[in-house]
Design brief:
By secondary structure, the protein is mainly alpha-helical. It is 65% helix and 10% strand. The chain has one domain. Strand 1 and strand 2 form a beta hairpin. The termini are far apart.
Length: 81
């Protein structure tokens, strides 16, 4: 997951993702983002076991994530023109 997010951060045109960026994303997920999403019941994050699953509020947030993802994809296509 960290590598996919690091690649998305760099943009679709980027081929190589520096290992430092992947590590930075992993640390940020582990210490900041996943605990916050767990607190909001969007995901269940078990740091001791490194397990991640959907939380009870996942379905509430999912449409917004899909919209943001589609909007970002359209933005990248527009920028390529």
């Amino acid at each position: 997951m960290s590598e996919s997010l690091a690649k998305a951060e760099q943009g679709p045109e980027s081929g190589h993702v520096p290992p430092k960026l992947v590590d930075d994303v992993r640390v940020s997920l582990y210490h900041v983002h996943l605990p916050k999403l767990d607190d909001a019941d969007v995901v269940r994050f078990d740091a001791d076991r490194s397990r991640l699953s959907r939380g009870p509020n996942f379905d509430v947030l999912f449409p917004y994530l899909r919209f943001a993802s589609e909007h970002e994809a359209r933005s990248h296509l527009s920028a390529a023109d």
